[in-house]
Amino acid sequence: MEDSVKKNILDVFNSQKEYFNSYKMLNVKNRIEALKKLKKNIMIMLPKIYEALKIDLNKSENEAYMTEVGIVLTEINYMLKNIRSFARPKRVASPITQFHAKSYMIPSPYGSALIISPWNYPFMLSIDPLVDAISAGNSAVIKPSEISPHVSDVIKELIDMTFERGHVDVVLGGVEECTELLNLDFDYIFYTGSTRVGEIVMKHAAEHFTPVTLEMGGKSPCIVDETTNIELTAKRIVFGKFLNCGQTCVAPDYLYCHSSIKDKLVKEIERQIVLQYTVDPIHNPDYPKMINIKQFNAMNSLIKEDNVIFGGKSDESSLKIEPTILESNFQADDMKNEIFGPILPVLTFENLDEAIQNVKKLNPPLALYIFSSRKENQNKVINSIQFGGGCINDTIIHIASNRLGFGGVKQSGIGTYHGKLGFDTFSHYKSIVDKKTWLDLPMRYQPYKKFNMKIVKWFLK
Ligand code: NAD
């Protein structure tokens, strides 16, 4: 890496520390001003944001608003409404042993947060955590993905026109720049991306004892029992699976359905694909593309001569792959890693307990979906499998609520964000006992006396 790039990263880091230590953002009014300015500038930059998402991922304006800009604006509005109450010290009762005292917890910003983001929802996954970080009073550096370069450039422009240097900065670049940032002693690291890189991030964080949130992925199952409403199930699976051409961390990765409904369900999914994406999705201007040739080839390697039930065609010049359904089993190549593309493997089970045991053999997924009309089956699946979050009788919509936390478990993630949980993620709660001075009970002090011990035991029972 060139010395000038290294120096720029170090300058950014130093100005972040300096800005945070000016204590400007301890004042909630200043945070509100910053959020308002961010919202205003996003609206000004909207055409450029749409254009960049079109170039990098062929996202239509509808999809760009629904899954990127709109989610960010909702998060900003939610914070603007609630930030004063979130930032207030939280009073708690004091134990009688500490009479007379006032006890409370102060949500305090960590300092300078490093936000590392991926390419699939490149705008939302950079700015959404930023909103939570600055609402909590932190300064922040965003390292957007080098794989979605047009959106990364727009993010830099937006941040530079909105924030003072040191409050929020953007460092462009790839692995080298990210490694250089990870070597520095940031006060918080918020990472979204693959589990493989998550492990690297966590190792760096351990060197400085830096707290982390890791938002990763995994194979999110979509379990469908024989009691489901086939038409609605198929419609909602197609929406969640093929949005952004399957490049969604919470997309249903594979369909795991009761053998008795498989044929009917698959037929209905095929019909829904045509209804939602036309008979020729590759030439549908609103159907996104694979991000690059590497991902395009990775998907095509899963499509074989003998496993295609539906779709399977692709066009290298536009990097588009048809919504594709594959016949599969737990030993198949498409069941080895997270798919992250428009391919839906179909597996079947005979009884739900066996299905649960099979899902549990894989790492805990980021999301899980259960389609069933039977409450007992819904509860059994939700309660017996570890996963980040999910839906009953729908897909992916759980991530679009400020009132629900979003995050995974173990290999799919550590920590949560969105709304109040996002504010808390970027806050350290300082526990304070404000002890009054008019009274000073003697029991805790030496020399210890038998009678005092009796009182201590009474207090501490
Ligand atoms: P990635 O891990 O390759 O990259 C993420 C970020 O890490 C990028 O900014 C990249 O520059 C940086 N990076 C890559 N390699 C690095 C290295 N060796 N050292 C330091 N930094 C490095 O992820 P991706 O391909 O951009 O995204 C796809 C993955 O992200 C999928 O697994 C998906 O499930 C997951 N994801 C999770 C969420 C979530 O919210 N949980 C959201 C979107 C994507």
What characteristics describe this protein?
single chain, 461 residues, 14 helices, 18 strands, binds nicotinamide-adenine-dinucleotide
3D structure, described in words:
The protein is α/β, with parallel strands linked by helices and 461 residues long. It is 43% helix and 18% strand. A hairpin with a 4-residue loop joins strand 11 and strand 12. Helix 3 runs parallel beside helix 4 and helix 4 crosses helix 13. It is globular and about 85 Å long. The chain starts with a helix and ends with a helix. The structure holds nicotinamide-adenine-dinucleotide.
How many beta-strand runs? 18
Shape: globular
Tell me the distance between the termini.
62 Å
Instruction: Indicate the percent of residues in helices.
Output: 40-55%
Question: How much of the sequence is in beta strands?
Answer: 15-25%
What order do the strands of the largest sheet run in, or round the barrel if closed? 10-13-14-9-8-15-16
Overall SS class: alpha/beta
Averaged pLDDT: 96
**Biggest sheet character:** 7 strands, mixed
Number of alpha- plus pi-helical segments:
14
Low-confidence runs of at least 5 consecutive residues: none
- What Rg do the Cα atoms give? 25 Å
